[in-house]
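Deliverable D2.4 — example input (structure tokens):
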């Protein structure tokens, strides 16, 4: 079976203003590269409409209504200091959430074996009741709740290798024994959370804080803790919060991973989780702000998904 690539053009209408790092070019660079590579093992698909019930399982109704009312008729509106919406953000946010739901359905229905969602805005900083860090809805969290509600899964792992801690995902699932949240991230750093003492109500959170300047070798050694936690938890379905801003060329952080490391991270995770989740994996884009690094790293991440049997 092939690997699904879920994306839509609506990301181009999510305007964050001049000079903002979370810009339209991020996803354009990724999509243009995949078109150029033209891998025949990819199935391209647009996100479907979805039932807002699943969004309500992740965010409060008050917050969802606040976001809807914030989309302007023209110009830009700040949801927080660095999270911005424009008129076109309405469709982009909807499609970002819809992409992970479409990807999950595709894997469940054996339309493709696994999937990567190339979308923006990202999601892992968005908490139950607030926008934060470029993130409006928590896409990966909606995906996990969808797996619980629609497909009755009891064990879902979210692995977040974005360079920033996914405070929003941790916030949403801190006391949910069905979801394991594991994060590797630069620490201390934005958003300030993610110490090794934050473990979740059911020991279902594992934070692996890493110093600025962490090299590939140190990171990959630390990643063994992620793999050991997966073995203990035995997830039935695995979701990646796939941020590529731990790359050495990324302007927003100070970690020193190389492009090939994202292939290794992905491949190791797939191998270690295969016996539990039978390859049921969906990945969704989070951060990554150097366009060349983003192109090469997402390609190698998806290469590992494609190669996995």
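Example output (designed residues):
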């Amino acid at each position: 079976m092939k690997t699904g690539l879920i994306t839509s053009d609506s990301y181009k209408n999510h305007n964050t203003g001049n000079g903002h790092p979370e810009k339209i070019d991020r996803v354009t660079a990724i999509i243009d590269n995949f078109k150029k590579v033209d891998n025949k093992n990819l199935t391209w698909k647009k996100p479907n409409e979805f039932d807002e019930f699943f969004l309500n399982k992740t965010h409060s109704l008050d917050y969802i209504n606040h976001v809807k009312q914030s989309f302007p008729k023209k110009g830009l509106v700040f949801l927080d200091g660095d999270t911005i919406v424009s008129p076109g953000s309405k469709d982009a946010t909807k499609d970002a959430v819809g992409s992970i739901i479409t990807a999950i359905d595709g894997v469940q229905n054996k339309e493709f074996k696994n999937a990567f969602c190339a979308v923006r805005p990202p999601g892992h900083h968005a908490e139950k009741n607030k926008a934060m860090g470029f993130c409006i809805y928590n896409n990966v969290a909606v995906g996990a709740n969808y797996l619980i509600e629609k497909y009755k899964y009891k064990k879902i792992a979210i692995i977040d290798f974005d360079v920033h801690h996914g405070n929003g995902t941790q916030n949403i699932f801190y006391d949910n024994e069905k979801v394991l949240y594991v994060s590797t991230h630069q620490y201390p750093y934005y958003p300030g959370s993610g110490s090794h003492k934050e473990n979740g109500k059911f020991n279902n959170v594992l934070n692996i804080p890493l110093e600025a300047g962490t090299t590939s070798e140190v990171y990959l050694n630390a990643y063994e803790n992620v793999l050991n936690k997966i073995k203990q938890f035995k997830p039935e379905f695995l979701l990646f919060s796939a941020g590529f801003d731990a790359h050495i060329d990324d302007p927003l952080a100070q970690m020193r991973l190389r492009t090939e490391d994202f292939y290794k991270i992905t491949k190791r995770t797939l191998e270690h989780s295969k016996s539990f989740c039978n390859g049921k994996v969906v990945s969704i884009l989070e951060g990554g702000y150097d366009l060349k690094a983003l192109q090469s790293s997402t390609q190698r991440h998806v290469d590992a998904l494609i190669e996995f049997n």
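The domain at 3-307 is CATH 3.40.800.20 (Arginase; Chain A).
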